[in-house]
Design goal:
By secondary structure, this protein is an all-alpha fold. Helices cover 80% and strands 0% of the residues. It has a domain of 39 residues. The chain is rod-shaped, with a radius of gyration of 23 Å.
Amino acid sequence: MSSDFQVDAEALRTAAAAVTGLAGRVSTAATAGPAIEPASPWATAAAGATAAGTARRLVDVLDHDVADTADRMRAVAGDYEEADTRAAARLGSAR
């Protein structure tokens, strides 16, 4: 059995670290904006506060998803390394 599929686990871990950094920047951006409080009885002020709160919650979800993606990338890198180790052991014992 032959496969042309190759995985560079170290490069995958490096990419995961970059994705983790992105998650940190997303998280920082979510908290960087000023709090929006309705300052007047106008309906638009309340609508603006509601929209801002919704946007912050969505950015929090995005932050979590990006961090989860980085974790999964690291896990996959480990899985591929383990598979390579098992394959090398099988090949070594077959000789």
